[in-house]
Amino acid sequence: MVQPAGAWDEIVDVVVVGSGGGALTAALLASTGGASVLVIEKDDVIGGTTGVSGGVAWVPNNHLLGPAGYDDSRQDAIDYIVRIADGREIDRSLIDVFVDQAPEMLRYVEDHTKLEFQIVTTLPDYYGPIIDRIPGCKPFSRSVEPKPFDAREALGEFADRVAARSTLLSLGASTTLVEDQGGGVDFDELARREREGVRVKGGALVSGLLAAVLDVGAEVRTATPADELVVDDRRAVVGVIANGARIGARQGVVLGAGGFEWNPEMVRAYLGYEVKPISPGANTGDAHRMAMEVGAEMGNMTSYWGQGAMYDPAITDARGEPAPQMASGLGPGSIMVNQRGVRFMHGGITYNDFPKAFGNFDQRYPGLANQPPAWVIFGPSVKEARPILTMQPGEPAPSWLVQAPTLRELAGKIGVDPDTLEHTVATYNGFVEAGEDPEWGDPTQTHTLTGYNQTMAKVEGQPFYAIQQWPGTLGTNGGCRIDANGQVHGTRTPRIEGLYAVGNTSATVLGGAYLGGGTPIASGMTFGYLAGRHVASQARRDLGETG
User: Fold this and answer.
1) Torsion over CA of 363, 366, 368 and 370, rounded to 10 degrees?
2) How many C-alpha atoms does 230 have within 13 Å on its Cβ side?
3) Any residues with CB less than 8 A from the CB of 471 and at least 6 apart, and which?
4) What is this structure's pTM?
5) What's CA 137's distance to the chain center, in Å?
6) Is the pLDDT of residue 32 over 50?
7) Domains of the chain by range and CATH?
8) What's the pLDDT score for residue 316?
9) What pLDDT score does 186 carry?
10) Three-class secondary structure assignment of 22-77
C-alpha cells in the first residue's frame, strides 16, 4: 500500500522481519554499519528455525580447516555445489558469491560476537559414500558449530526468550554435536550448563548473535507479526505494518521470517503433497505473501529442506498434539513400502533427499503412487536393536505400533494388498541372500549417510511390525529471488528498492542442494551478512515525521 508521509508510528533505518540466523546476521551487519535497526519476531521466542536446530553451518574453505590439517579450495566447493544442484533452479553466479563470502561471514561473526566455532569432525560431506562420482566432495567435515555459549551471562533476561528444543528426541539439548558423536560430556558439566544457562547448538548460535545485536544498539521485539509492506509512489519499500503499527524504514526492510511449511494451502499449492514440518509453527509464509503483494519475483517454490518424520503419541507439542520426530526409515532389517505395498525407495540416503520420493510421478501407475504415509515393515531384530522413538529394546510393543504374526495379517491392518506385501518382502529377502540390491544399487554406498551399519538384513518375524513413515521438512526453501546483495528481484523491475530477503524467505541460492550438515544455516547467514552490509550502505530516505 502507499503510505502517506507523516503517518508513521515510528521510524528506523532498517526493519528486520524474523529472528533466525540469517535475520540476526543481517541485523548485526546493518547495526555495525551505522544503521538504527529494529528486529520484529512473530513468535514469543527468538531464533526461528535456527534456534531449534543443530546450529551447524556448512562453510567451505573456512579458516578452521587448514590448522586442523584439512585441504579445501574454492574450486572444489564450487564443483561440489554445482554437481549436487544438478541443473535445478539457480543463478549460477550466486554459488560463487556463497563460496567466496561464507568464509568471510564466519570470520566476521567470530570477530564481532562472543561466539567461538569448532569443526564437527564427524559430519563429512553428505555425498562422501559416492565421492568418486561427485567432484569437489570431501571425506572430511566442512561443517562448524558454536561452542557452548553462556547465554544467561551475555543476555540477562533475554536468555529465557531464546527458542529451545523441546519436542525433538534427536540431538542432545545440552550437548554439542561434537560431544553427541564423540563420547558425550560428564554429568557435572551438563548440570553446570543447566544451572548457569549455557546454551548449545542452535540456542548457542542464536544467543551469541542476539547478544551482539543488542550490544550494538538494535532493538528486538517478540510477538510482533509483520502484516504488510509499505511502498511509496515509486513502488519502493519504505516500511512495514506490524500489529497495526506503521513502522518506517529509511534504508530498507529485510525479510527473514522462515518458510511456509506450516501453511497447508501454500504447501498444497507449491509442493503438491503433504509434508510434516519439523520446525517452529510460526513459519506460515507471511513474508512470502507480503513480498508477492509488492511484486517480488519468486523462485524454487516447489522445493524444501527434507527430512523423514515419524510419530509417537507419547511425544506431544505445547498444544498436546503429536510432534513429528526426525526418522528416515529404520535401517537394515526393514523396508519401506507405499500404500500399494511396493518398495519405493532405499532408506539409506541423505535426509534431505529421503522424502522427495514421496512426490515422484509413477509412469507405470499414473499419478503420485507414493503419496504419504508410507509404512516401514520390520521384525523383532530391528525392534530389539535400539530405541525407536520412545520404544525401548526389551519392552513390550506399545499399542500404537501395528503388529501381526504374519505379513498377510499385517497388510490387512495397514490397508495394503497382502499378496503385494508378501511378494515385496520375499523379493527383498532374496536380494539379501544374493548379497545385492538390483533395485537401488550397492547399499554399502548409501547406508553410511544415515549412520546405520552398511549391511543388508532380511525382514523377518515373528511378529512383524509396521510404523508410519512421513515426508518431513526442516523448512521450505523457495521464496524471493535475490541478487548478490540479498536484494529482491521484481516482476516488473530488476530490483525492488528497499527490499531484501534471506534464509528460507528467499529462493535458496544452492538449488535445494543439501551439501553437508548446516547447509541452510550457512546460506542464510551468508546472505544475511551481505544484505545487512548492503542495506546499511544505502542513502537514508526522507519519510516525513511520526504522527
Assistant:
1) -70
2) 25
3) 273, 274, 275, 276, 306, 308, 309, 354, 355, 356, 358, 359, 372
4) 0.94
5) 21
6) yes
7) 10-301+477-536 (3.50.50.60), 306-473 (3.90.700.10)
8) 86
9) 87
10) HHHHHHHHHHHCCCCEEEECCCCCECHHHHCCCCCEECCCCCCCHHHCCCCCHHHH
DSSP H or E stretch at residue 374: strand 374-378
The Cα–Cα gap between 199 and 357 comes to 36
C-alpha cell at 291: 513480498
The pLDDT of residue 446 is above 80: no
Over its C-alpha atoms, the chain yields an Rg (Å, rounded) of: 24
* Burial class of 275 by CB neighbour count within 10 A (0 to 12, 13 to 18, 19+): buried
**327, three cell numbers:** 526418522
pLDDT at 451: 41
pLDDT tens readout for residues 354-380: 999 999 888 887 888 999 999 999 999
Cβ atoms < 10 Å from Cβ of 349 = 23
Residue 445 has pLDDT above 50, yes or no: no
Distance CA(71)–CA(377), nearest Å, equals 43
What pLDDT, on the 0 to 100 scale, is given for residue 7?
A: 85
Distance CA 58, CA 515 (A): 8
Peptide bond into 405 cis (omega under 30): no
pLDDT number for residue 168: 64
Q: 512495514: which residue's cell?
A: 240
Task: Tell me the CB-side half-sphere exposure of residue 309, using CA atoms within 13 A.
Answer: 26
Averaged pLDDT for residues 248-265: 98
Which amino acid type is present at position 204? A
